[in-house]
Design goal:
There is one protein chain. The protein has 17 helices and 22 strands. By secondary structure, it is α+β, with helices and mostly antiparallel strands. Strands 1-2-5-4-13 form a five-stranded antiparallel sheet. A hairpin with a 5-residue loop joins strand 4 and strand 5. The chain is globular, with a radius of gyration of 23 Å.
């Protein structure tokens, strides 16, 4: 039997390079939505049609269409924003969206709650701030992430420059984005081509992350293409290349699974674009276009075999990758507080719970950051805002003389939580989930504050309040908070019910394992209490929670990066 191409493939093929009828749909005043096929194409432009799930039932009862609104995601390689851009993004949040900015687990911003008539002005305003949204979503290379704090050394800066170059180089070539959102004139008779992607783009999304050891804050083994910077004598020598990482899975379907990338060799900076382009090209040609569930690179590699994939890659490259070089990660979290870079500038990492920047009673985070941005807007100061893949924020490049003022603004606006928070709170990630995510099965971001209080009370009882336990909460098995890399993770199954996963490490090098299935909060706390107790009583000095569980045999051995590739 010949397998059928998925319906999405037809939509892409018929789209005239991502145009579809989006422009017409935006003008239709009768509905807050756009045509179904166009919602698929819209993702390539960096926006998703959603509806407020809190209001769904009530609106259905009232025979109203769902409360449609759009989420916009910026393409922001390496997550770097100037004060001027910050002020523009903040204004967009208040003028075109729901008044909040959301730092994502891929180091960029999302604006939620953008109603249809605000969508084009919102995207145009983002572009006026010299940032775009093209390819922030869709079956293309997504936002390229890079270890945060890259101004610490010249090698960090070089890695960041590579992230920007990759992101630019791998952008779709279509002018559809500029025509629809920025009113660019279509040049009559011009024949468009997509030199890398072709008319049907990739079979599925593709993600690249660059990690600068010893920090694996990007979770490099969760990327389709993970690049591990090799720094020798303070200079960037090149990257170890890891392919086939990914988190997404479907409950009850063993043919879908999270997977860590395999390290396949080393590439010098001058060959980086060629390697990325050719990994993408093999995936473009070999990836599964019939079943989207199996279309990510990780499945292509497992179906064809890693050796076969690498042989094809090297044949297309025309050279063989050099052997991987030694590297060592010591953690995948953020380093809170002030850190001084090699150039004597200072960087302040702030903890932002679940990445949500809003003004709430007692904690005016959005206003606080606006004040900090205003001080530096248009001044000679080199201050930047840098987003992290742990949904946090760095105020970077600060001169010593500016520190005290920033500290006082941080304290005034409740942004100084990092100073005294519990270990688990500082290391918690939660995906957005309800009410905007159409795929959420359970709460995540909105449940995190309550869950943390309960976990903290449990941990305090065992003297573990300061233990830096890595918690990841996702509203469904798609894994947007990279839950399968959490020492403790909850993966939503149904309202109020989660799978409890345990046993990843603190370096992003080992997947966790299912520990309890489909349990409610009482079940979560009851399951964790005895393991926390045992950890408190029996852990070795400096031993992480996940490592401990594995050592004492509380869990079966999960997938981890083979010891021979780790220094
Ligand atoms: Fe994600 C889909 C939010 C990072 C795996 N993700 C979604 C959508 C767009 C739901 C949808 O398709 O309708 C979510 C929108 C929620 C909302 O209301 O905002 C969503 N994903 C997010 C964000 C905002 C989570 C967050 O709280 O920070 C992250 C935005 C990243 C960005 O800036 O580009 C986000 N998503 C991730 C990650 C983590 C990463 O990339 O490091 C993953 C796991 C890694 C991976 O891709 O394997 C991830 N998201 C998914 C998947 C599963 C893909 C798969 O291979 O099965 C979906 C569903 C899909 O694609 O069909 C998904
Ligand atoms: Fe939505 Fe699931 Fe991603 Fe959470 S993990 S944002 S619930 S798709």
């Amino acid at each position: 039997m010949v397998a059928q191409l998925s319906a999405f493939e037809r939509v892409k093929a018929d789209s005239r390079f991502l145009r579809g009828t989006i422009a017409e749909g935006l003008l239709d005043p009768v509905t807050g939505a756009i045509a179904d096929d166009d919602t698929k194409l819209l993702k390539f432009h960096g926006t998703y049609q959603q509806d407020d799930r809190d209001l769904r039932d009530e609106r259905r009862r009232q025979k109203l269409e769902p409360a449609y609104a759009f989420m916009i995601r910026a393409r922001l390689p390496g997550g770097v924003v100037t004060p001027t851009q910050w002020l523009a993004f903040d204004a967009i949040a208040r003028e075109h969206a729901n008044g909040t900015l959301r730092i994502t687990s891929r180091q960029t911003f999302q604006w939620h709650g953008v109603i249809k008539r605000e969508l084009k002005p919102g995207i145009a305003a983002i572009n006026r701030a010299l940032v775009d949204t093209i390819a922030a979503c869709g079956d293309v290379n997504r936002n390229v992430v890079c270890s945060a704090n890259p101004v610490e050394s010249s090698a960090h800066a070089a890695a960041y420059a590579c992230a920007v170059r990759l992101s630019e180089h791998l952008k779709p070539a279509t002018r559809a984005y500029y025509e629809i959102w920025l009113d660019e004139e279509k040049i009559a008779g011009s024949d468009e081509v997509e030199p890398l992607y072709g008319p049907t783009y990739l079979p599925r999304k593709f993600k690249i992350g660059l990690a600068v050891p010893p920090t694996n804050d990007v979770d490099v083994f969760a990327q389709d293409l993970g690049l591990i910077a090799i720094i020798e004598h303070g200079e960037l020598a090149g990257f170890n290349v890891a392919i086939g990482g990914g988190m997404g899975a479907t409950h009850g379907d063993a043919t879908t699974y999270p997977r860590l990338g395999d390290v396949i060799g080393f590439v010098a900076p001058e060959h980086l674009l060629a390697v990325a382009e050719n990994v993408i090209a093999v995936q473009r040609d070999w990836g599964d276009r019939n079943e989207r569930k199996h279309a990510r690179l990780k499945y292509t590699i497992d179906h064809r075999g890693l050796d076969v994939f690498v042989a094809e890659l090297q044949a297309r490259l025309g050279f063989v990758l050099a052997p991987a070089r030694a590297f060592h990660f010591d953690h995948n979290g953020d380093r809170y507080g002030w850190i001084q870079g090699d150039d004597r500038r200072w960087h302040l990492t702030l903890h932002i719970e679940a990445g949500r920047l809003a003004d709430r009673p007692g904690r005016a985070l959005l206003s606080g950051l606006r004040e900090i941005a205003k001080v530096h807007d248009g001044t000679a100061s080199a201050v930047q805002f840098r987003l992290t893949c742990n949904q946090n924020l760095i105020i970077a490049n600060v001169a010593a003389a500016e520190r005290a003022h920033i500290d006082s603004l941080v304290a005034q606006h409740g942004l100084d939580g990092y100073r005294d928070q519990s270990g688990i709170r500082k290391h918690a990630l939660a995906c957005v989930a309800l009410p905007t995510c159409g795929l959420a099965m359970a709460e995540a971001e909105r449940y995190l504050p309550d869950l943390l209080l309960k976990l903290e009370s449990l941990l305090a009882g065992h003297g573990l309040l300061d233990a830096p336990i890595l918690l990841r909460l996702s509203g469904c098995p798609n894994g947007c908070s990279r839950p399968y890399l959490g020492e403790v993770a909850l993966v939503g199954k149904a309202p109020g019910r989660y799978n409890l996963m345990l046993g990843a490490d603190f370096r992003g090098q080992r997947l966790n394992r299912l520990y309890r299935e489909n349990i409610d909060e009482a079940g979560i706390l009851a399951s964790l209490d005895p393991v926390f107790a045992r950890y408190a009583a029996e852990r070795a000095d400096g031993e992480g929670f996940g490592d401990f569980l594995l050592r004492v045999g509380a869990l079966a051995a999960p997938q981890s990066i083979p010891a021979e590739v780790i220094a």
